[in-house]
Write a structure and sequence with these properties.
By secondary structure, the protein is mainly α. The protein has a single domain, classed as 3-Layer(aba) Sandwich (Rossmann fold), CATH 3.40.50.1100. Helices cover 50% and strands 0% of the residues. α2 crosses α3. It comes from Tanacetum cinerariifolium. This is Tryptophan synthase beta chain-like PALP domain-containing protein. Pfam families: PALP.
Length: 80
């Protein structure tokens, strides 16, 4: 009901998608974000790709965690 009333939507981001977002934000913006922050980034990109968000809209993406807490999870994964 909340989604319908707010005219919102739901996006699912895989673990690999989160890691891709972490890499992308690190390479492009110099940020080492937490996986959940990377998921928000990837969800926004997905919504832009589908047209649910428009490129001329202003949106705010929040990342309240650091990727440093997840070093053991990302160690050994390809970052290039």
């Amino acid at each position: 009901d909340v989604l319908r009333e707010s005219q919102g939507t739901v996006v699912s981001i895989s673990e690999e998608g989160m890691l891709e977002g972490m890499r992308e934000l690190g390479q492009q913006e110099g940020l080492f974000v937490a996986p959940e922050g990377a998921a928000v980034w990837m969800a926004a990109r997905q919504l832009l790709g589908t047209g649910w968000l428009r490129a001329d809209e202003r949106i705010l993406l929040l990342n309240t965690g650091s990727g440093q807490k997840y070093m053991s999870n990302v160690a050994g994964r390809a970052w290039a």
